[in-house]
Amino acid sequence: MRLDDYRTSSNVGDQRGQSFGGIGGGGGGIFGLLFGLVASRFGIGGIIVLVIGAMLFGMNPFGGGGTGTQRVASGGNNAAQACAVDQESRFSCQVLANTEDTWAGIFRERGQTYRPAQFNFYGGTGQSGCGIAQSAMGPFYCPTDNAIYLDTNFYDELRNRFGAAGDFAQAYVIAHEVGHHIQYLTGTLGEASRAQQAVSPAEGNAIQVRVELQADCYAGVWAARNRARLEPGDVEEGMTAASAIGDDTLQKQSQGRVVPESFTHGTSAQRMEWLKKGLESGDPAVCDTFQKAA
């Protein structure tokens, strides 16, 4: 993906090299504990479960009207320095900046104003508004502080474990997390968490699958709006990444069998299907996974 000439985002913080102790978090000790137990990789995953747990303890992860309640210092020199650490950091910051401009345009088409997400790098362990961040969780979006958290070592795992090499595979990861931010801004995450409180765990997982597939579709919409910057093979890189992280594929690899009722992100086929829908249309309206068969 050609982004060499693109700006880097100023909405970036950097926790690499910092030390974080205990299991407390922005939402309190129990919030941090819940997060450590349920957060899953590449997507919001167990974060919705976390949100339900937070509500049970009287917290409001969706408060603040989308402005966020806890943000790591960013902007100015801090952001520029974070983006200049290495090439992967710079590329991540350029992708983020591009998503900001792209979604600002989409929101403007609808007479709305886009509020960008915060983006925080961390190394090994970090601190989020949802509690302690750990590299084993993979990239995630925290609705409490409207922030994306990424340990760039995940890119190595993306290449080596998932077999999804290439800069567009990395861009897809970020665009997917930004998709969760779009869901926060539009109220989808809040609606999903409330719906999950009223159903069985299996039904709650099914709702979560639709949340993740919609974020995949939004990632496709972003890519479609930047088709002129795509290079040969980019779409294939994205599809490879989507396929590699399907629930069925991961379960076969880890436990040798597939348990559909435990899916939280969707099958490989579903993730590729919804990414493709966004890529082919460039229209967020096609991403209504809650009304259409997912």
Describe this structure in words.
The structure is a single chain. With 294 residues, the chain is an alpha/beta fold. The protein has one domain (12-287). The protein has helices at residues 29-38, 47-56, 76-83, 87-109, 154-160, 167-186, 188-197, 201-224, 234-244, 247-255, 268-281; strands at residues 12-14, 118-121, 125-128, 131-134, 140-142, 147-150. A hairpin with a 4-residue loop joins strand 5 (140-142) and strand 6. Helix 1 (29-38) runs antiparallel to helix 2 and helix 6 packs across helix 8 (201-224). The two termini are 29 Å apart. Mean pLDDT is 83; it is low at 23-41 and 45-76.
Helix content: 40-55%
Number of helical stretches of at least 4 residues: 11
Calculate Rg over CA atoms: 17 Å
With strands numbered from the N-terminus, the spatial order across the biggest sheet is 1-2-6-5
Q: Note the overall shape.
A: globular
State the distance separating the first and last CA atoms: 29 Å
> How many beta-strand runs?
6
| Whole-number tally of structural domains | 1
Instruction: Tell me the series of helices and strands, N- to C-terminal.
Output: EHHHHEEEEEHHHHHHH
Low-confidence runs of at least 5 consecutive residues: 23-41, 45-76
Summary, kept brief:
The protein has 294 residues and is an alpha/beta fold. The chain contains eleven helices and six strands.
Characteristics:
294 residues, four-stranded mixed beta sheet, two-stranded antiparallel sheet, 7% strand
